[in-house]
């Protein structure tokens, strides 16, 4: 079976073609240059840019995969969560193609796509495992017992980790997108500033990053000549320590020896290296998707779609965008 997947949940347009679980092509059109001057994503502009990019990316992806539209057996698209205008572009495009070609359609939960991104590189990971899903909009710890059975054991009580990266980057005047810029700045700094690690109690698996963000703001006000590199490095060290302490505490609590870390923040180099260090100390395995599958992409949507197809979980063509879709809701 050959499938085309579309990802348009925010400001990156993604189109991928998969044959069973093998990626034949995976293309992305970024809008960073469009939204950078505004300091963040402008929803209406994002939707318009998706409309421009999606047919071009589809043609490119079909050519790279050596396919024609008539070879496609199913069309998949992200239904949520995300920006409603952006979601509707990919969703409408996929449903239109399904109608025109009389093929099947699958609507995919974006978060489920992130959870299954790791299987693109490591298809033989065995259940159960602990998942840290960490992105611009989500920071949560899940126990996955099977594809169908998973439950949340920890979550952020305020800001998501990626959101905190972006907000602190704005404090440091690093521009948009803030996360990668802050990571780059931090690589030249000394993490010597003792920023707090909120909710550090061992029996609590929730996160809280608003206090850490406020501590950075007050430190900047009180120390205006402080090196930005050191502030960035200290903030990054604090947030990564919080993420990993909670995640590996969950593995200990539930006696699970495999940890999977996914989402846009999973591309952070320090998070990846520190996670491997944590795993070595605890005799635990840790897996990350390759970096190109951590941030938003259509290949992960296609991978999750195949899991749904294997269970005959097709979608009705009346499926609509759900901007606040959660992981435990229908996808």
What does this protein look like?
There is one protein chain. By secondary structure, this protein is of the alpha/beta class. It folds into two domains: 2-115 and 294-310, ATPase, nucleotide binding domain (Nucleotidyltransferase, domain 5, 2-Layer Sandwich), CATH 3.30.420.40; 127-288, 2-Layer Sandwich (Nucleotidyltransferase, domain 5). It has helices at residues 32-35, 43-65, 84-101, 110-117, 161-171, 178-186, 210-222, 228-253, 269-282, 298-310; strands spanning 2-7, 12-19, 22-30, 74-80, 104-109, 129-134, 139-144, 150-155, 258-262, 285-287. Strands 3-2-1-4-5 form a five-stranded mixed beta sheet, sandwiched between helices. Strands 8-7-6-9-10 form a five-stranded mixed beta sheet, sandwiched between helices. The radius of gyration is 20 Å and the shape is globular. The protein starts with a strand and ends in a 21-residue tail after the last helix. 49% of the residues are buried. The mean pLDDT is 95.
Secondary-structure map:
Layout: E1 2-7, E2 12-19, E3 22-30, H1 32-35, H2 43-65, E4 74-80, H3 84-101, E5 104-109, H4 110-117, E6 129-134, E7 139-144, E8 150-155, H5 161-171, H6 178-186, H7 210-222, H8 228-253, E9 258-262, H9 269-282, E10 285-287, H10 298-310
Parallel strand pairs: 1-4, 4-5, 6-9, 9-10
Antiparallel strand pairs: 1-2, 2-3, 6-7, 7-8
Helix pairs in contact: 2-3, 4-10, 5-6, 5-7, 5-8, 6-8, 7-8, 8-9
From the structure above, extract its key features.
331 residues; alpha/beta; Nucleotidyltransferase, domain 5; 5-stranded mixed beta sheet; 10 helices; globular
């Amino acid at each position: 079976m050959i499938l085309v997947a579309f990802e348009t949940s925010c400001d990156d347009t993604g189109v991928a073609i998969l044959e069973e679980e093998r990626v034949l092509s995976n293309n992305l059109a970024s809008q960073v240059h469009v939204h950078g001057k505004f300091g963040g994503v402008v929803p209406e502009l994002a939707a318009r840019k998706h409309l421009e990019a999606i047919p071009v990316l589809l043609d490119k992806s079909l050519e790279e995969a050596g396919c024609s539209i008539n070879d496609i057996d199913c069309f998949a698209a992200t239904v949520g969560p995300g920006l409603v205008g952006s979601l509707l572009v990919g969703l409408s495009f996929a449903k239109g193609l399904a109608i025109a070609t009389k093929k099947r359609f699958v609507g995919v939960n974006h978060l489920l796509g992130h959870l299954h991104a790791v299987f693109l590189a490591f298809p033989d990971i065995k259940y159960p495992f602990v998942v840290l899903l960490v992105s611009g909009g989500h920071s949560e710890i899940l126990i996955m017992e099977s594809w169908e059975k998973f439950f949340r054991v920890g979550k952020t009580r305020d800001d998501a980790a990626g959101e905190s990266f972006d907000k602190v980057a704005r404090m440091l005047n690093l521009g948009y997108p803030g996360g990668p810029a802050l990571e780059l700045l931090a690589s030249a700094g000394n993490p010597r500033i003792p920023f707090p690690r909120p909710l550090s109690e061992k029996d609590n698996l929730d996160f809280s990053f608003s206090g850490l963000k406020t501590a950075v703001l007050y430190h900047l006000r009180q120390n205006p000549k402080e090196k930005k590199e050191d502030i960035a490095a200290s903030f990054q060290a604090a947030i990564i320590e919080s993420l990993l302490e909670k995640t590996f505490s969950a593995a200990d609590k539930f006696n699970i020896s495999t940890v999977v870390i996914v989402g846009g923040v999973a591309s952070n180099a320090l998070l990846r290296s520190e996670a491997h260090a944590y795993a070595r100390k605890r005799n635990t395995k840790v897996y990350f998707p390759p970096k190109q599958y951590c941030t938003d992409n259509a290949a992960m949507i296609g991978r999750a779609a195949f899991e749904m197809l294997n269970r005959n979980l097709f979608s009705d063509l009346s499926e609509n965008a759900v901007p606040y879709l959660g992981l435990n809701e229908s996808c």
